[in-house]
Amino acid sequence: MNQPHENTEDKKPAPVSFYEKHKIIYAKPVKGYFDNWRIALVIFTQVLFYGGLWLTWNDRQAILLHLVERKFYIFGVVFWPQDVIYLTALLIVSAYALFLVTAIAGRLFCGYACPQTVYTQIFMWIENWVEGDRNARIKLDKAPMDARKFRIKATKHLLWGIVGLWTGFTLVGYFTPVEELINNVLTGELGPWETFWIFFYGGFTILMAGFMREQVCKHMCPYARFQSVMFDPDTMIITYDEERGEPRGARKKNVDPNAPKLGDCIDCNQCVIVCPTGIDIRKGLQYECIGCAACIDVCDQVMDKVGLPRGLVRYSTENAMAKHQGKKEILAHIIRPRIMLYTAILVFITGMAAWFLMNRIPLKVDIIRDRSTLAREADDGRIENVYMLQIMNTEERPHRYRVSVEGLPGAEIAGNSEVDAKAAGLTSFNTVVSVPPDAGKAGSNQIHFEIVAVDNPDIKVREKAAFLIPQ
């Protein structure tokens, strides 16, 4: 019997997607021990950020990274572009501090102090306050657009916009004096760069914390990718006690005594519902986990309700889970070679940077020889070279400096040898050095300038220069 002919041309291969479709995560708020810590860290970091802008020191903004003047004011210390070594030290110390914390306790920074986490938490508070709890938000998003939904969504985005723009304004206020910035905003004279950066930072705050949220942690943050390099079997991480929890299943009344015994996990999925990145911690350590411990808080509450011990999901280590170690054994393994190495490097770099900062001379000098006149002969036969001294007084009080020169016999400053330098300012000072014609060899000779503060001899700088004697 002949089979009907199948037209293969009408068949098209099913499309294959290599990317998972993004699903909106409706994280359920949870109260508990670790959530209280997270709230405290959010408040602490934002008080520092928003409040630090309004601190004053010596009749100026206490923390000001003044780009126009090319000076960084940090309370009583003024940093210049030449002090970039201190910025380098700060970045190295921050990196090693992050490595150390991660090696000991996993992604604590991500879960409690990372700006992405902090502002996502703030925006979620606003969202929960305006739209309601998790179920209300899901219901609202599924409902068709009407006047009520538009009003609620508009209110939420308006509050997000206020927080975002205030954040952008605050950040720009650390680079432009805030009083000047406020005056420019009120008078409508805000410059194009200030306007751009306020809206840029504000817009990205809204985008990252309001819309992208977990996508930043899962797909954009490099720290999530290389964290495994800093983990070891003794690193504290959020773990699910599989031996205790499996096999999981819901509890039922009048269970047959001969039925297979279930583990402590009742498979309520609350740990998934409260996770801001939407992962299931029961599947083991995953790079998407930011260490916020929301799953620990909610699991402990569930265990309390069903009358089982807390700690089914808890902070622990791989070794502790495998070897059934207690808190004392976990704490005993904190001191290990990797931790000692990170700590030693961190202490050394921090100590060296602190020592150099405390012994930092608040005076910098650049010496530029006048190239238009290499050397000239004065009326009395002495040879003269002209120099321009750029004196940077890094203290916030004026100084008077005395300039002297040595290195060639009979070398002296021709004319005035003292100069007044304003507080935290740059002063240019032209000076002439003269020597007898037979003081050195023909050509270039090395001399040294010494610049000393008249009111404080400990403030002094010695710089070398070249003195030219004609053939």
Low-confidence stretches: none
Instruction: Characterize the largest beta sheet: strand count, sense, and whether it forms a barrel.
Output: 5 strands, antiparallel
The whole-number mean of residue pLDDT values reads 87
Count of beta strands: 16
Overall morphology: elongated
User: How much β-strand is present in the residues?
Assistant: 15-25%
How far from one another are the termini? 117 Å
Class per helix and strand makeup: alpha+beta
User: Approximately how much helix is present in the residues?
Assistant: 40-55%
C-alpha-based Rg, rounded: 33 Å
Can you tell me about this structure?
The protein has 471 residues and is α+β, with helices and mostly antiparallel strands. Among the domains are: 33-227, no CATH class; 363-469, Immunoglobulin-like. Helices cover 43% and strands 20% of the residues. The chain has 16 helices and 16 strands. The chain has helices at 33-52, 84-105, 108-112, 115-131, 134-142, 147-173, 178-187, 192-212, 214-220, 223-230, 242-245, 270-273, 294-306, 318-323, 327-332, 337-358; strands at 56-57, 60-61, 63-66, 71-74, 77-79, 237-240, 313-316, 363-369, 376-377, 383-393, 399-406, 412-414, 418-421, 425-435, 443-453, 456-469.
Short description:
By secondary structure, the chain is α+β, with helices and mostly antiparallel strands. Helix content is 43%, strand content 20%. Among the domains are: 33-227, no CATH class; 363-469, Immunoglobulins (Immunoglobulin-like).
